Amino acid sequence: MIKKLVMATNNANKLREAREILSPLGIEVLSQREAGAECEPDENGTTFAENAVIKAKAVYEIVNLPTIADDSGLCVDALGGRPGVYSARYAPKGEECAKLLDEMKDIPDDKRQAAFSCTIAYIDENTLHTVSADCKGKIGYEEKGENGFGYDPVFLYGEKTLAEMTAEEKNKISHRGAALEKLYSFLKERNGD
Question: Given this model, what pLDDT does residue 193 score?
Fold first, then answer.
């Protein structure tokens, strides 16, 4: 029976989302700092799944408690899937949207499809399990909205960018939210519910 697990992150937004979605299971979700795991594993995988597993294993080896880790990013069809696993390192912090819009300036409307992808890895003493989900949309032509972070101001879902949505609206459609829902089902089964 899983009562406590560690999320290999200190990101308050990711933690809040995981806690909200997993709390009905009665599972306490700790940040890696709260669990005493001060580490920054080298995310040198070539896929979101590889990077999620690298992070989960690194933290699990320190805390010896069930651990989850996620890796996510933006995959743009017209750019051959870039920035992909390099989303966080694609441009200096705060300049990601400007660089992406510049790279996309000559791409016509019908070729601007993109998806935010997320993979979550779960590890314990006997199990390594991953779940993945996407949020499909397209890249707009300018930054819009004050909410969100990263690429949210240029990622259109319907008529709105993710940065124009409330946190509640975004969580309902987000790649991480969808992956956490899949994780919820996996953990519920593990706990025998």
Answer: 64
Q: What would you measure as the largest C-alpha separation in the chain, in angstroms?
A: 54
Considering the entire predicted model, what is its pTM? 0.91
What is the pLDDT, as a whole number, of residue 33? 96
Distance CA 98, CA 151 (A): 9
| Dihedral over alpha carbons 79, 49, 28, 25 (to 10 degrees) | 90
Active site residues: 71
Return the number of other C-beta atoms located less than 10 Å from residue 84's C-beta. Answer: 17
- Alpha-carbon gap, residue 189 to 170, rounded angstroms: 27
Dihedral pair phi/psi, residue 130, rounded to 5°: -125, 150
In 18-177, beta strands by DSSP E: 28-31, 67-76, 113-123, 128-139, 155-157, 160-161
